[in-house]
Amino acid sequence: MSIKTSPLPLKERLRQELANPVMRTAIANAQDLLNAKRDAAFAELGDFAKWRETAGAIRSHVLENLDFYLNRFAERAAAAGAHVYFAGDAAAATAYGLQILRDKKAAKAVKSKSMVTEEIGLNRLLEEAGVEVVETDLGEYLLQIDDLDKPSHIVVPALHKDRERFREVLAAKKGYTGDSVPENLTRFVRQLIRKDFLEADVGITGCNFAVAETGTVTLVTNEGNGRFVTTVPKIQLVFMGMERLVPTFAELDIIFSVLARSAVGAKLTSYMSLITGPRGPQDADGPEELHIIIVDNGRSRVLASEFGEVLRCIRCGTCMLECPAYRHISGHGYGTLYPGPLGLALVPVLAGYEDYGEITKICSLCGACSQVCPVEVPLYEFIFEHRRIIAEERRLDVGENFLMGLYGAVIGNSKLYRMATRLAHFSALAPRAGPLAQWTATRELPAIPKTRFRDWFAARGKKGNLP
């Protein structure tokens, strides 16, 4: 499972990101812009609470009946001419895809943006096998040529970079000589990628949602690259998370109505592609073969856990745009492919506390993520529950375990508690080092009165001053 995006430990990642003013400015500007657009889009739609409730109910219904809808989708997709493969883990998913490319002697593949292919490490394995992989989403393309940088947001992958960085990368890697005007940058990249579309043997996409009733896979994009990836190459591979289903087009309409508004503050996406089977005799374009790889990769474990509702997520990324911690450290500070509140809720149960329990510390527990989620995933509650489990299972580091154990001993013993409260006002004399060093470097410890409340209260009672 390739969800780790940095080898650095948590504290080093945070220091690195906090020291990056360009990234912090880019993230802050994007948050302010997209949050305002999202609020306006939902205000125009009206009754946000009802839309959230309905969309959340659809996602819950699918998860509660996932085996039924998966089987129905597979049957209908196969009937339409698609090849459907269930992959239990990343290794199975990548092996299936790699075998198809080998059988077809494919030398080049073009990709539309896909988080699940990032999750299973598809690009690296294909390139190791000698297949050139070209990301065709503008943001993903720029990250790919910028020393294989990783996405910092699940919808806007290059959110942490500004246009000047894009200009520098294109100049250094592709010979670009123009300015940093977005239209000019885009025009230059479009000319480069156009040749790749025509030369590619295989097109690779993700799947926003699949319609069980018809065996249809859907792709929503704001760039035309998705259309080229799904129509020009003779072979198309679709990698789909197993939970990405809706029963019918009626439910798809509701989900897409909230997805576009939550993700980018738009009424609808620029391009919506609905693909049912490969190209037929009456079709002018489209793939001759369509392979749909349905990926589990830990999702069954998540579904069976107490955190199963996190799979309701529609991958809009709005929780990240609302998060104050994400604002300052971007997605890279989390060190995982799925950052922000979604990552904190999902990754520890998807990939284990051993490697990913520590990231749950990157949260102020303000609860804003739960309030804006368009399908009512209780993200804040899940993050808090992860913290509880980590503490109770003694998964904290040695220092934290010692301090928490000491605190528990004091708070659970009346004599020790009385002694500690009598001595508390001496905390102002404590050295600004040791375990409190990081806090006291930028904060003043509050002054604690010499007289405890219980002593003051008892004294007033003796003097008859109580009502």
Structure description:
The chain is α/β, with parallel strands linked by helices and 467 residues long. The chain folds into 3 domains: 292 residues, NagB/RpiA/CoA transferase-like (Rossmann fold); 80 residues, no CATH class; 65 residues, no CATH class. It contains 23 helices and 10 strands. Helix 2 crosses helix 12 and helix 3 packs across helix 12. It is globular, with a radius of gyration of 26 Å.
Lay out the secondary structure.
Blueprint: H1 10-18, H2 21-45, H3 48-64, H4 66-79, E1 83-87, H5 90-103, E2 108-111, H6 115-119, H7 122-128, E3 132-135, H8 138-145, H9 163-174, H10 182-199, E4 202-205, E5 209-211, E6 216-221, H11 225-231, E7 235-241, E8 245-246, H12 249-264, E9 271-275, E10 289-295, H13 299-304, H14 318-322, H15 324-329, H16 340-351, H17 353-356, H18 368-372, H19 379-392, H20 398-411, H21 414-423, H22 437-440, H23 453-462
Parallel strand pairs: 1-10, 2-3, 2-4, 4-7, 5-8, 7-10
Antiparallel strand pairs: 5-6, 6-9
Helix pairs in contact: 2-12, 3-12, 16-19
**CATH superfamily descriptor of the largest domain:** NagB/RpiA/CoA transferase-like
- CATH C-level of the largest domain: Alpha Beta
Query: Describe the biggest sheet?
Result: 6 strands, parallel
Number of strands: 10
- How far the N terminus sits from the C terminus, by CA atoms, comes to 65 Å
Q: Per the principal axes of the C-alpha atoms, what is the gross shape?
A: globular
- Main-sheet strand order equals 1-10-7-4-2-3
Number of helices: 23
Strand content: 5-15%
**Which bin fits the share of residues in helices?**
40-55%
Give the CATH topology of the largest domain: Rossmann fold
Contiguous runs where pLDDT drops below 50 for at least 5 residues: none
- The tally of domains stands at 3
Mean pLDDT: 91
